[in-house]
Amino acid sequence: MIKLIATDLDGTLLDQYGQYDKDRFERILTQLEQKGIHFVVATGNAIERVNLIFQELSPRLSYVAENGGYVQTSSKILRKSQITQDDALAFIDYFKESLVDYRVVLSTAHRSYVLDSVIFSKEHEMIEEEQWNAFLAHLEFVPNFEGVDFNHLTKINMLVEKDTNQVIERFNKNFKGNLRAVTSGYGAIDILPREVDKASGLELLLKQWQLSPHQVMAFGDGENDRELLAMTPHSYAMANAPESVKKVALHCAPHHTDDGVLQVIEEFLKDKGE
């Protein structure tokens, strides 16, 4: 019996403009709550953007954000991963010639740091203006990273214009520290401790609620969803997902521009007598 539904956001629950049918989603969420089914947002996005997306609905949801680096129920934070000083310094040395071109951002719990010669531009319609402005407002532009508090670093992100997969593959093959690179889509790359991914984050929620992976329905479209989709037999790759992701999932959901996630959940509820 399904007791938890987990979904990615960009390219999955959200449409091509980074939006979702709020009224339809709220109706579905109410039905799930009545059945005691948890709804989990499993995304590479930071929790700040996720809260902007869902606004007043946010307290009714649970989160595996930052590709598993941040895990929260509606009332309790279960994980805030941190990157060690040694790994952060090794990362900066590894990319020392590309810190500007790859638009590297180092973040603590309260502030994000980027080199002052980096230029950001809103390149995708999938991020709404309010969310983009909130991202920029959180940044502090610095001449170098020497003043960053490396003892409290929570995440590292990059925004690479091209050859994203090659950058990820080379880093994961050659970097000697306890970090790995994963895509967040559209050129964004998250740098995480090797043991952190969406599946490990969801496992914390399963333990919290005493559930098993067989009770999970999961949706995704990207390479950073592979571990999540592989952990349950009720896995759905979106129609817009690449073949490498579709091969991991056991089912296919309609395209994200057709509200594929909501369609599948509605059919599930209909079969359960709703």
Blueprint of the fold:
Elements lengths: L3 E4 L1 H5 L8 H13 L3 E5 L4 H8 L7 E4 L4 E3 L4 E4 L4 H10 L10 E3 L4 E4 L13 H9 L1 E4 L12 E5 L4 H11 L4 E7 L2 E6 L4 H12 L6 E5 L5 H5 L3 E5 L4 H4 L4 E3 L6 H12 L3
Parallel strand pairs: 1-2, 1-12, 2-3, 7-8, 12-13, 13-14
Antiparallel strand pairs: 3-4, 4-5, 6-7, 6-9, 9-11, 10-11
Question: Would you mind describing this structure in some detail?
Answer:
By secondary structure, the protein is an alpha/beta fold. It has ten helices and 14 strands. An eight-stranded mixed beta sheet has the order 5-4-3-2-1-12-13-14, with helices on both faces. A six-stranded mixed beta sheet has the order 8-7-6-9-11-10. Helix 2 (22-34) packs parallel to helix 10 and helix 3 (47-54) packs antiparallel against helix 5. The longest helix is centred in the N-terminal third of the chain and has 13 residues, at 22-34. The protein starts with a strand and ends with a helix. InterPro entries: Cof (IPR000150), HAD-like_sf (IPR036412), HAD-SF_hydro_IIB (IPR006379), HAD_sf (IPR023214). This is Cof subfamily protein (Haloacid dehalogenase superfamily).
Q: How big a fraction of the residues is strand? A: 15-25%
Give the helix level as a range of percent: 25-40%
The chain-level structural class is: alpha/beta
Spatial strand sequence of the major β-sheet: 5-4-3-2-1-12-13-14
Pfam families: Hydrolase_3
Protein name: Cof subfamily protein (Haloacid dehalogenase superfamily)
InterPro entries: Cof, HAD-like_sf, HAD-SF_hydro_IIB, HAD_sf
